[in-house]
């Protein structure tokens, strides 16, 4: 793995490298889990995304049995490497038969950090997704993230993996998993609402991906909305049509389905997922998108504007107010 400050603990889920006080040498705990383990190597990469991502793509092809990961400080920074993404990551297999399991970890999410530290341009990756060329995922729990990486490392079919990784979920008190979920199980492209007890009571289904799930989950009035279910699409491409169709059909009394996203209407996954959702939601059930309005910039610059807009999206999605 290489990344922008990935060693020093900027990404607090890892703390991959510790500096020994007496010698100033780095100690990497992941190198010493088991005496017979495979090598683990991690490097801080410079702010030269174009060059670094080109190198990592080549390294992933040269070492096909390795899990090669590049992590951006913020997902926005991947913009500088767009040529590598377009020319190689997205289309290298179709054009030249090149297969690589290169994984990109791209911090993404409306967290009040402003327009330069919010968006990994999810919409671009989805626009480039076709012909089984890569996977695009937005996991919301540690177990989902773990099993996603494990699948990427072990699957004999080598494809690039693009992972949206909200920074705020590293410390969110509800974004947790029991150890049993990591030790057992597998990655699930779709996660149903775990709080639903009576499926016939549900008349409104909110579908979403990523960080906004926890904003919906923690709204002060969420517990009062027994007729609302909130489910997550954890893998956007390949589109999990079968799993979503099963999910929607398991709620027999739906009167409305909403797709909620933090991103503006012209960004995020809406233009990709909207037509596909219409294919799995019955025609008689209204399907409504809830998002920020079209914008040239990914996010607000003022913190209060961000909070106001985030609150509006959550309340409209839950049916607490009109759009």
Description:
The protein has helices spanning about 50-60, 80-90, 90-95, 120-125, 140-155, 180-185, 210-215, 240-250, 270-280, 305-315, and strands at about 1-5, 20, 25, 45, 70, 105, 135, 160-165, 190, 205-210, 230-235, 235, 255-265, 285-290. The protein is an alpha/beta fold and about 325 residues long. It has a 7-stranded mixed β-sheet with strand order 4-1-5-6-8-7-12. A 5-stranded mixed β-sheet has the order 9-11-10-13-14, with helices on both faces. Strand 13 (about 255-265), helix 9 (about 270-280) and strand 14 form a beta-alpha-beta unit. The N and C termini lie far apart (about 45 Å).
List the helices and strands and how they pair.
Blueprint: E1 2-3, E2 18-19, E3 26-27, E4 43-44, H1 49-62, E5 69-71, H2 82-89, H3 92-96, E6 103-106, H4 122-127, E7 135-137, H5 142-154, E8 161-164, H6 179-183, E9 190-191, E10 204-208, H7 212-217, E11 228-233, E12 235-237, H8 241-249, E13 256-264, H9 270-280, E14 287-292, H10 303-317
Parallel strand pairs: 1-4, 1-5, 5-6, 6-8, 7-8, 10-11, 10-13, 13-14
Antiparallel strand pairs: 2-3, 7-12, 9-11
What are the defining features of this structure?
323 residues, alpha/beta, 7-stranded mixed sheet, 5-stranded mixed sheet, 10 helices, 28% helix, 16% strand, globular
């Amino acid at each position: 793995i290489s990344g922008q400050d990935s060693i020093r603990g900027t990404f607090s889920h890892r703390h991959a490298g510790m500096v020994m006080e007496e010698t100033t040498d780095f100690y990497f705990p992941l190198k010493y889990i088991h005496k017979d383990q495979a090598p683990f190597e991690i490097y801080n990469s410079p702010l030269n995304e174009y060059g670094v991502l080109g190198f990592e793509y080549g390294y992933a092809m040269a070492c096909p049995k390795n899990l090669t990961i590049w992590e951006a400080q913020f997902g926005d920074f991947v913009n500088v490497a767009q040529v590598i993404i377009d020319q190689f990551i997205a289309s290298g297999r179709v054009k030249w038969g090149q297969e690589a399991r290169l994984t990109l970890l791209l911090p993404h999410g409306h967290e009040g950090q402003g327009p330069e530290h919010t968006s990994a341009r999810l919409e671009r990756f989805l626009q480039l997704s076709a012909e089984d060329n890569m996977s695009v995922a937005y996991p919301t729990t540690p177990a989902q993230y773990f099993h996603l990486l494990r699948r990427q490392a072990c699957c004999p079919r080598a494809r690039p993996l693009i992972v949206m990784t909200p920074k705020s979920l590293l410390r969110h008190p509800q974004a947790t998993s029991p150890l049993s979920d990591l030790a057992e199980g597998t990655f699930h492209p779709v996660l149903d609402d775990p709080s639903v007890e009576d499926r016939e009571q549900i008349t409104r289904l909110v579908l979403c991906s990523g960080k906004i799930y926890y904003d919906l989950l923690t709204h002060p009035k969420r517990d009062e909305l027994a007729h609302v279910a909130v489910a997550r699409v954890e893998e956007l491409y390949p589109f999990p049509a079968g799993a979503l169709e099963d999910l929607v059909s398991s709620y027999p009394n739906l009167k409305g389905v909403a797709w909620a996203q933090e991103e503006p209407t012209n960004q995020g996954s809406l233009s990709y997922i909207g037509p596909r959702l219409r294919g799995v939601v019955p025609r008689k059930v209204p399907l409504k998108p809830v998002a920020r309005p079209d914008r040239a910039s990914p996010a607000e610059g003022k913190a209060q504007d961000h909070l106001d807009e985030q609150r509006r999206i959550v309340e409209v999605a839950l049916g607490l107010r009109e759009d």
